[in-house]
Amino acid sequence: MTRAWILPMSLVLSGVLVATAQVRDGSPVLAVVLLLVFAVLAWLYSPLAFPRSIGAVEAQRRSAADGRPVVYWRAGCMYCLRLRIRLGRNARRSHWVDIRRDPAGAAEVRAANGGDETVPTVVVAGRPHVNPDPAWVRGQLPPSA
Fold it and tell me: Any residues with CB less than 8 A from the CB of 2 and at least 6 apart, and which?
């Protein structure tokens, strides 16, 4: 199991344990509600909540061709999640690179942040922006076709 799945799987396991305890205490409805809450949290903190990641080299090539920003992120990062949620459907109009899966992406982030792997780092027109305001990022997205 990769590091990106440790927190989501822990949340699912915790949800199952809490729900089991609630069922034993005679509260099956509360058990279902709590299990759903844990499942939603697990999904939010998993790589599934983000658009499909591509490699840094491919993202840079595509960005040069279409002008879309490149977003470097990692699962479990609450700032990345904040950016993803605030962009909504517009998140798919940028190129996402998971730095845990792509060493070249991690190297790009370290180069932009003085050796630190601070995410989200958004590259627009070759300039990196560390943890930018989601409204600003939304303004950098090209118009949808």
Answer: 100, 101
How big is the chain by its Cα radius of gyration, in Å?
Answer: 18
Q: Which two tokens stand for residue 74?
A: 């990692």
Measured at the alpha carbon of residue 84, what is the angle toward residues 114 and 58, in degrees to the nearest 5?
A: 60
What are the E-state strand segments in the chain?
A: 70-73, 95-98, 121-124, 127-130
Q: At 112, which helix (H) or strand (E)? A: helix 103-112
The answer to whether 85 touches 45, Cβ cutoff 8 Å, is no
pLDDT, tens digit, 9 for 90 and up, residues 68-122: 999 999 988 999 999 998 998 888 899 999 999 999 999 999 999 999 999 999 9
Nearest Cα to Cα of residue 78 among 49, 108, 38: 49
- Quickly count: other Cβ atoms within 10 Å of residue 136's Cβ: 11
